[in-house]
């Protein structure tokens, strides 16, 4: 930074400000620039300087800004341009307030458009100064960062601005959308009656306090056809806050499944109490829900009525929370016992109780049982085997844990277990395991039991298991069973044990089977053959875990038995195994026994299994590599090589590095040598597969010990490898033997090098580390007879002339290049070589084609007369010249005159701001016809040129004067455009030359031009505004367009906000830009089929750009087509398919669905939907089904 400060001259900065600020982006260097500008302009920077600051303006302080003279709106536009980076809120406020305080400035439409989202940094009092008229021409303001108070002020003004549009609700709504975040309750309620179909994005941006006060009916009217979007955004905080204030019965009318979890929130029991009290209870009993009964404080039911009600409710699909059931049971505690008795004898096949009612019974009823009742077998039987039987299949952890702490005795406890066991077939595995872990084990291990473990009243292990654990015994470990019963015998109940328990049995020290190989083989073989694959997997999981817990080392002989017996048992299933199956067996189940591998162990594995499956086997063996002998490692390597050679077509390899592809097959077991490596590659795919390997991988491979033994094989590899040159240049020589063989392979190519650059590469780059390994054979006359001139000269270090400057300067040779068909890069190379070999060569000798591609250094020494001649040639023949050449030529003219400008022609674009400002104004005016046709000016240059001619009296007040400025139009102040008569401006709108020029001008100039055009004849706005400038037409002027204007509409390039006003016109005749404005509000008045046609018009079509749609539009479209079976996946926009419910797509159609979905943009999905994960999982499932 200090060097930059030291070398940045003030005069250089002053005259080249635009170019400098455009290039310098470092904040510390920008600070230096601003400091020097403050030195140049101690009273503050003026408009001309401020417009050229660019991103440098962002390092200014508030004190700096308060001194700036911001007199023109052009300056405000330039300073607030978002392309130059964001402003700190305090800074942007200070900037805007400085503009408003300088001169006669107000917050009118042009100012608001210039300010953009920075409007949210202004105080309320400032915002209140905005007039209703000013907002009419504002282009879709961004108020997302505004406070509620700011939004309220702006809404009030906007409401007044568009008051004339109230007669057309949809038009008014489209115009007021950006301001609705500040709308009061009564205005939102009014909108709900006007069929506007508000999208969900706008809905959740409303004032949260207002949202909470809206009822379901109002929201339904407000959102209209988009109501389903509430479900998509149900988890958003805004929607949840609203739901919490709504009655569940009202929410149910939306049919969206949105739940308010307070069971009695907003429940009005008055009507319910009245109907029940009318006397005819049986007729209306099942017409009301459990919630109605739970939330009523006046209803009394008999046990018969209560049993009937339970049957109705539990046979239906309705579910209720535990809180609702608890209130219900508390309300009807009196008749509940008899009601449950009656309920238990009904047909329970259709009963769906769920865990909530049982948890509530536990909390309301069982928790009140006293010790005497809990130890009364009859009482417990009555409750658990009769009254609670229908609910026991839905046990939860909470319910079981509560039972485990109750004061049952052994007899009453056994009654409970028997009751639960009777419902076991209706329980899932997790529930049955919970019975053991949450009830049985905690209860039987209680130290306060008179008979711990309930052992006394049993006759042996079998009887004890039957009485105390029933069907849940399989969820206990043998250690658990010994903890519960110290006298438990595994042998006595071996036939009753689960797979896991049998594994534990084998490892028990007291079983003795591990100490007897033949006994173990017999017992183990019987166990393995008696189990299916799932049971066998559970067996090995338990076996391994138990061995680890016991810190038990399995003898090698036992491991060999386990490995060989198991693999033989699995062999018939290997052909159907997936890679995941092999991974599980070789990396988990059998991992501990793989060190017992023998010569024939792997022979049971079919050679025809997939490569992914085989890799999983090798990975498992690699995990135990440190426990294998050298002989065992060689067995694995040879079998793997044999497996790969069996796959002769390489069908298992498709893409990516073949070297990296092979690594997972061998891992720690070595790698094939070059001969074996090449034997794995089919000849027809040799080049393709070799070129998949990176140079780093090739070096790693070739430098492995014993990889290369035959030079011919190495030459085959290097000759078919596309990156041999990079390999030679980048990879170090690690082996002299390999280096000698490598050099012998590539030496003929080096000798054939025919260009200086190629020779340079071969002898000074690629072979620099290999030349020490040259042999007499390689430099023999036989070898060198095929060498090129340049290669031989390089190798022999002789003075042999192959290509000299005389050759390059030869006139006939030069004329050969005066051919427009020669590539520019060739011409540039020739002139560069010419300049390098002879720096004094004059460009005057060059033909036109070479002159136009000459380096700037060729022009440095030109004299005045030569410069004139060169300029004439360049301007006559060159359509493009490098900026460096232009800068050199312009520097030859310290003083600028009309003749200088004439001589320079198009090279004037290289003039600095300093040169322009020092030039006589009359010279610029007289050269206007030349300057106005030059392209490539920067803003600083055109500002200086226009200011110069204005200061000299050039009056820009008519269409002809504006046209005469040509490419200099960018330097004209917007106020000048505003002051030109309307008739003159209107004529310019039809002038293609002027339109081309103004399109390169600043945004504020284009917008001012359009505002001037439409200031008189607004009804004909689309016809009179040039097509390239229609984006500056205010939205309010586009609401009256119809299909009569279709030819004009389709030819224009509209902004997204503008096309929203035209999406109602319809059909395939609309252009992409118009279709992008599809709006639910606009189409809801159209016939359904016409709306569907609009959706189909947005589908992907060949030869047409994609129709870009937002999430709210796509969700709306989905609601129109989701139930129409005639609409196929290719009939709709691909992005729309993101919102399809995958479970509703027929599985046989999943492939066509994902094919159509392939061109969708997943980034438009709201993160709250979590759709990406769902679709990815579904796609994998679809892929599996279609590859089986």
From TrEMBL:
Annotated Gene Ontology cellular components are: cell surface; membrane
Alphabetized, the UniProt keywords read: Cell adhesion, Glycoprotein, Membrane, Signal
Give the Pfam families listed for this entry.
Mesothelin
UniProt KW Transcription regulation keyword: no
Q: Which organism is it from?
A: Clarias magur (Asian catfish)
| Single GO biological process annotation from the record | cell-matrix adhesion
Q: Where in the cell is it found?
A: Membrane
Descriptive protein name: Mesothelin-like protein
Q: Which family does it belong to?
A: Belongs to the mesothelin family.
